[in-house]
Structure to design on (224 residues):
């Protein structure tokens, strides 16, 4: 089964700073990749996804992620964060054609005004 | 109102009792999932079902059971064999090669 690694579980940064969250997965075949976000008190929602095509994916709220196949990575970035980006961010992966969806341990991001 | 309904939102049970968490969907999705969320552990897959009358164990299935008798429903039973059942449980649905959608979750507290 595939597995997902996310590092730096707690991230604290100031507004306007840049954010990058790492995500690495272990699976040798073709994968679908996702980033989900969980705002305080809310349910998980999709931030962005990658299935195929351009490896640089743009999502909601100014987030983007880059798929680097050779590094088995799908890192999330935002050039300038806002206080409202305070949330927990989860990377997820499944093998193409398979519904089993594996998540990383998440990154708790706190943005200080 | 479309979506995924998990009930109840909060659930309290005495130690040693089985408890069943409900998950209903009207999105017509084939796949349904149960995850457990603990602080610092991310989402861990308990069980998932890709089609009616079929389901597979996830990474932490011990002490849990599920059924998938209808496409719309995927109840999770937390049995007395689960050593540490207090947690936040999330149900999700999806289709192959598409994103999953999540319910609001059930917070189970065993006392």
């Amino acid at each position: 089964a595939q597995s997902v690694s996310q590092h730096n579980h707690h991230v604290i940064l100031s507004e306007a700073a840049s954010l990058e969250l790492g995500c690495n997965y272990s699976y040798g075949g073709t994968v679908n990749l996702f980033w989900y976000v969980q705002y305080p008190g809310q349910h998980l929602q999709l931030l962005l996804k990658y299935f195929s095509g351009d490896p640089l994916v743009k999502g909601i709220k100014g987030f983007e992620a880059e798929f680097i196949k050779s590094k088995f990575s799908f890192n999330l970035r935002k050039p300038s964060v806002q206080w409202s980006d305070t949330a927990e961010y989860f990377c997820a992966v499944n093998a193409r054609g398979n519904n089993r969806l594996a998540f990383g341990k998440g990154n708790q991001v706190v943005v200080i005004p | 109102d479309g979506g995924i309904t998990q009930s109840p939102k909060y659930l309290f049970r005495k130690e040693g009792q089985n408890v069943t968490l409900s998950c209903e969907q009207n999105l017509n999705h084939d796949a349904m999932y149960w995850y457990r969320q603990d602080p610092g552990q991310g989402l861990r897959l308990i069980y998932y079902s890709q089609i009616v009358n079929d389901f597979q164990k996830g990474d932490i299935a011990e002490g849990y059971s599920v059924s998938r008798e209808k496409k719309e429903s995927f109840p999770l039973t937390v049995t007395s064999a689960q050593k540490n059942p207090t947690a936040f449980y999330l149900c999700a649905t999806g289709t192959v090669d598409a994103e999953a959608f999540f319910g609001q979750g059930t917070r189970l507290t065993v006392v």
Remarks:
- Residues 22 and 75 of chain B are 5 Å apart (CA to CA).
